Structure formats: C-alpha cells, structure tokens
Amino acid sequence: MTDTGRAAESVWDYPRPPAVRAAAGRLVEVWFGGGLVASTRSALRVLETSHPPVYYLPPGDVATELLIPAEGVSFCEWKGRARYWDLAVGPRRAGQAAWSYPQPLPAYRELRDLLAFYPGRVDRCTVDGEVVRAQDGDFYGGWITDEITGPYKGGPGTSGW
To answer: Which CATH topology does 9-147 take?
Structure first.
C-alpha cells in the first residue's frame, strides 16, 4: 500500500500489447503558463510493460484553444499514427507537449481524439493532487506517481528492453 491508500503497481505486471483502462474517477490535471489547461475525472490510462501509465484526456476537458498543430508524426505498432500538439499560453509555448490518435487502430478506438500530455513539457501534471514525475527520455510520456514502481524504459541504456 502507498501513502495514498492505493496498492502499488509494477510496470512489469502491465501487459503487452498495452491495455486501456479507466482512471477510476481520479482527478487528472495539467498546468502550464500559470494556469490549469486540463482537468478531468474521465481520463483513460494506457498500461504497457516497462512503462509508467500514460493518461489520455477527453478534449472537452482540455482548453483545446491553447493547442496548436505541431510538426511531426509517429507510429505506434499498437495504437497507430499519432499527431502532435504545441501548447501556447500567452508568450509561453511548449513544443509537442501533447499528442493524440485521430484514427487509432481498431483495438484502441477508444483513444480516438483523446489528448495525452508529456509531463516533462508542461509546468505540472497531477493525479488526485499528487505531482507526477515524468518518465525519462524524449519519446515516452509516462506519468510516475508514488504507486507506480519500475524500473522504467526510457532512461539511458533501456532502449533494448
């Protein structure tokens, strides 16, 4: 048990291919540029072996007017083609701070148009008030909370896992 009363989760118990699970009503928030840019209790979590969870938020709970289409795409063998979004608040801009799957592969259709944020590219992400730690590396967007245990893919020397 963690200080939050939740059971610890090892990323090595997560499946491959990844599983999509409801975030069980947890309050998921994203802060940038001095303000709250997303807040929801309707997030989905993607759980994949060796990765901290990635939270996907419904666009209706995100200040989407602050998102600007960014250059670049990537392809996930499970979820499909991702597009990226810059986040701009006043004079501040975070490049490729978020991503989404406009047309995910069929097994992940519930992620369609939901938005995931890189916690290391915004000021702060929280889950039920706990400040999230970002997964190492420039590509992965995992959210590490006290209940999540590793080791995690993404840091130096982990690309072959």
So the answer is: 2.170.150
* Residue with token string 């759980």: 47
CA dihedral 115, 118, 124, 130 (to 10 degrees): 80
Neighbours of 118 (CB within 10 A): 25
Q: Which DSSP string corresponds to 45-102?
A: EEEETTEEEEEEE-GGGB-GGGEEEEEEEEEETTTEEEEEEEEEETTEEEEEEEEEBS
Beta-carbon count within 10 A of 73 CB: 10
Q: pTM here?
A: 0.94
Domain spans in the chain, listed from the N-terminal domain onward: 9-147
pLDDT in tens, 38-53: 999 999 999 999 999 9
pLDDT tens track for 91-145? 999 999 999 999 999 999 999 999 999 999 999 999 999 999 999 987 789 999 9
